[in-house]
Amino acid sequence: MIAIARKTRAVGRKAPAASKKLLGLIEKSLDDDKAENLVAIDLTGKSSIADYMVIASGRSARQLGAMAEHLQVKLKHSGIAKVGIEGATAGDWLLVDGGDIIIHLFRPDVRGLYNLEKMWGMELPEPERALSVG
Length: 134
Hints:
Layout: H1 17-32, E1 36-42, E2 52-57, H2 61-77, E3 84-86, E4 93-97, E5 101-106, H3 108-114, H4 116-119
Parallel strand pairs: 2-5
Antiparallel strand pairs: 1-2, 3-4, 4-5
């Protein structure tokens, strides 16, 4: 597991502008990769481990792996020196350590099982349903 101990953050402060900019880059990358049910949780004032937690779903282990790899490249280009990825072997739940932002990528059934949103006082988003043509 990646050690996510970083500089000590003062609980109760606002997320820095750099984290907000990084969040935008992450959300855009995941949207470009067709991530589903993307949720960004502001952890400022709730936790000292990160400023944001991003949770998204993908349809297959291959899609999750590609999303994680794309994030790794983009985060490194944005100045994050060491971007770790955990869980790529199994492919059901990938954790990307983006410094001040932690990204969880799940297959939908696994996401529902762990329901990280509930732990932070949020509801799990409704699964997107395909429109039927007929």
